[in-house]
Amino acid sequence: MFVRRILVHPIRPIGYCAVIFLICKPRRYGRLRFGGCTFYGPPFFLDLCKAACERLTEIDPELAQGFRSGFLFWYDPVKLEQVEKLFSISDDYCVWKEQGIIAFLVYAFYKSECFAGRVFSRRQKMEAQRLATLAHEKTSAWLKAHSFASELVQTFI
User: Among 41-50, 65-74, 117-126, where is mean pLDDT lowest?
Assistant: First the structure.
């Protein structure tokens, strides 16, 4: 319990500050707020995210409401970073345009839901892998149910 208190509770405020000041400010990223989400990135990325959020709200308003708890996303062309409700979105998803961003948002939602602020030790590696697989399965099922491109669905299987 002591470790959880130290590691999880301060992550969000410290994480937000770190993302904003270490990643977004030096790159002069713009900001977009949509519902409970904040996006940082260049103009093309923010335009994609706005269109994706609007479309997600049309497709699945209930899932879109799940983002009210506050997620932060930023553009990183090369790598994916994920800590609690802080996620980078890479070019691997941007090339799919609006559908790729929606797919990543759905994945971020399910991953946050499955992990729910838990911290795992090395001994709990199997449990962490099981939850990661569950998040992928939920994302894949959602994408299939909403008729997304099969190639995009395959990235979560």
Answer: 117-126
Residue 83 CA neighbour count, 13 Å, CB half:
14
Match 């559908």 to its residue by tokens: 99
Residues belonging to the chain: 157
Q: Tens digits of per-residue pLDDT, 38-59?
A: 999 999 999 999 999 999 999 9
The values of phi and psi at residue 19, to 5°, are: -60, -50
Helix (H) or strand (E) holding 71: strand 71-75
Judge whether 72 and 37 are in contact, CB under 8 Å: yes
Model confidence pLDDT, tens digit, residues 75-91? 988 887 777 788 899 99
3-class DSSP string for 22-64: HHHCCCCCEEEEECCEEEEECHHHHHHHHHHHHHHHHHCHHHH
Asked whether 15 and 117 are in contact (CB, 8 A), the reply is no
Q: What is the pTM of this model?
A: 0.83
The secondary element (H helix, E strand) that includes residue 94 is: helix 91-94
Q: How far apart are CA 121 and CA 107, in angstroms?
A: 23
Q: Report residue 149: phi and psi, to 5°.
A: -55, 135
